[in-house]
Structure formats: C-alpha cells, structure tokens
Amino acid sequence: MKIGRELLDLTEETATILYDESQKQGSVVEFEIEMPEEVLLDSFTINGVVTKSDYIRNNGSSGYLTELKIGDLSIENRKILAAYVAFLKQEKELEKIHIDYDAIQNAIYKLSQSFFQIVSISEQLSGKPSKKITLH
C-alpha cells in the first residue's frame, strides 16, 4: 500500500491526493483518511484507480498530484465516505463564513474608530463636550 502525503479534494466518486512518488495511470492505490479527533473511528481506507498523476512544484515543495476514481467500497465505508465528504463541504463553508465574519468585524471596528475620532475632534473644536457616549 502506498501512502499519500496529503488529501487535497474528495468527492464520493473521486479523490485528489498529493503523493511523493509518481503513480502509474491505471494502477490501484489505497489512501488512509484520518477522521476528526472526536470521531470514534480513527481512520478509514479508500482504494481507487489512478486516472492522472502529474508532477507539480509550489513554493519550494513538490510532489505528484494524483487523481483517483474511487473503487468499490463496502456499504459501511460508502456511508462513511458520504458523511465525510459532507463534513468537508461544511467545514469549507464555515471557513468562508469565518473569514467574512472577521472582515466584517474588522470593518466595524475601523468604522467605530473613525466615528469616535470625528466626535473627539468636533468636541475639541467646539470647546465643550457634548452628550456622554456610552459603550456597550
């Protein structure tokens, strides 16, 4: 069994994996997928037929980008795969939302800084403080 270095993409039909070695097109390979820490199952293995294996280099690292057509799986492993694919999809969505949330939070913070700067400058120019500003 050749172990892949990194799972890059996964659907119920295909997997894209980064390997250290070239995989021959048409060969059958296995890949062990680690489950999230909270899951009772540590990992499960998928097998597939190599449909493509290309050498890539990116930011000083390199490897073989290998695409697999997932082979026959037991009913149980097919269910685990389907649930894991759904989990990965939701995880990606959560990452997008988190990034957007951080951007929104940062924009609101900058807006409030600008607002309080305007308030401060206007109070200085008028020579007397206006109504109290309470932060919640």
Task: Tell me the strand order in the biggest sheet.
Answer: 1-2-5-4-3
What is the correct CATH architecture of the domain at 6-89?
Answer: Beta Barrel
What oligomeric assembly is this protein in? single chain
Structural class: alpha+beta
Counting H and I runs of at least 4 residues, what is the number of helices?
1
Radius of gyration from the alpha-carbon trace, in angstroms: 26 Å
Kindly state the number of beta strands.
5
CATH topology name of the domain at 6-89, in short, is: Thrombin, subunit H
Largest sheet properties: 5 strands, antiparallel
Question: Helix fraction?
Answer: 25-40%
- Helix-strand topology string: EEEEEH
β-strand percent reads 25-35%
Shape descriptor reads: elongated
Which helices and strands, and how do they pair?
Blueprint: E1 6-10, E2 14-19, E3 28-34, E4 43-58, E5 61-70, H1 75-126
Antiparallel strand pairs: 1-2, 2-5, 3-4, 4-5
List keywords for this structure.
alpha+beta; 1 helix; 5 strands; Thrombin, subunit H; 136 residues; 32% strand
Describe the overall structure.
The radius of gyration is 26 Å and the shape is elongated. The chain is built from one helix and five strands, in the order βββββα. The protein has a domain at 6-89: predicted glycosyltransferase like domains (Thrombin, subunit H, Beta Barrel), CATH 2.40.10. It has 136 residues and is an alpha+beta fold. Strands 1-2-5-4-3 form a five-stranded antiparallel sheet, with helices on one face. The protein has one helix spanning 75-126, and strands at residues 6-10, 14-19, 28-34, 43-58, 61-70.
